[in-house]
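Dear colleagues,

As part of the handover before I leave the project, I'm documenting each prediction I ran so the next person doesn't have to rerun anything. This entry is a single chain, and its sequence is reproduced below.
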Amino acid sequence: MDLQQVRVVTREGWQQGPPHRLFSQLRTECPVHWSDGFDEYPDEAGYWSVTTAQDIQTVSRDWQTYSSELGGITAANVSFPIELMRAMFIGMDPPKHDRLKMLFQAGFTPRRIAAHEPAVRAIVIDVLERLEGRETCDLVADVAQPIVSRVIGGFMGIPESDDAAWATLMNTALAAGDPDLNPEGMDSIVVNEIPEIFRRCSEMIAARREQPTDDLMSVLVHAEIDGEQLAEHEIVMGFFLLVAAGNDSTKATYCSGIRALMAHPDQRAELVADPSLISSAVEESLRMFPAFAHFRRTATRDIELGGSQIREGDKVVMWYVSSNRDETRYEDPDRFDVRRNPEHQAFGAGGRHFCLGAALARLELNVMFEETLRRYPEMSPAGKVSWVESGFISQLKSLPVTLGPRAAG
């Protein structure tokens, strides 16, 4: 490809998932690449694509030069107003980011999360048991979605009866450009989904003010930063961030990881024979199939990166779907290897914005892989898969499977 003419984000280029061939060429020939705009959003400014693991690590760890707060966290700011993005700690810079994130840090340590394993396993088993008697299912809609909805719903204080409604809101808001998930178009997010999110959250906020509980919504409602409680829109967007991350991260990697195992039965056979390899397979799935294709920063000053001259105010987009296949970090990076157990950037590349929920996502994924393979070791594809049409979230929209014979025991 003529890289000078390429725009990394196009609807056509992402219909079958991330354009890995393009990213491979970029890493080799132009690791920090300029796209002059978006085909679908003519009013949006161009952006720099950062594609190697080392350069993304540099951007991630230098919040003074690469700001999350100045311009938003996605390559194109087309569905959420910037004011709402800045109300989430992922859209803040220190020191406010650090103070708000610290409110939740203690509840997401690996030790605290490990205590939730029995509850997470019970949710996974319950959902998988609903498949009893069926020959086929859609792994996205019938397995992954109800599991992740209930796990994060339990943390946030969402009643189980509201799981489906919140899942629809999250899927529509995060995949705003997908015609199936959001048939009314991008503008409808501000008109429909955001008001509905605020309405539902306002009811929960009022209830927690009157009667505090032990869920994370109560943490937000009663939190204080510099002696002041959070404004209602900050509570709502903090809630949205945690539910959105919990909704998408595990669902995306689980479905793509199981799909990879079906495509590589030798790898699956190793896991079935030796379940102790599952944690390694989870890390390999996170490497190859990160749930979020990118996050974005805004340059606070002129700076050189990867041989390119970035100007103050420029968008700087970190492509994790590229860095996790960086040939300088991984041998044969497009090969799925359950024994690789790699380091990766699926949860970010260090710095202040490293994923708060990494331990929870790992726990969920390990349990979901274990319980799925224990029941259906011969699961196979049953039709055409479809991808969410998005340059931001990297996940399957549909994954039809034939369950195969249920394993004894």
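The mean pLDDT is 94. Residues 232-263 form the longest helix (32 residues).

All the best with the project,
I.
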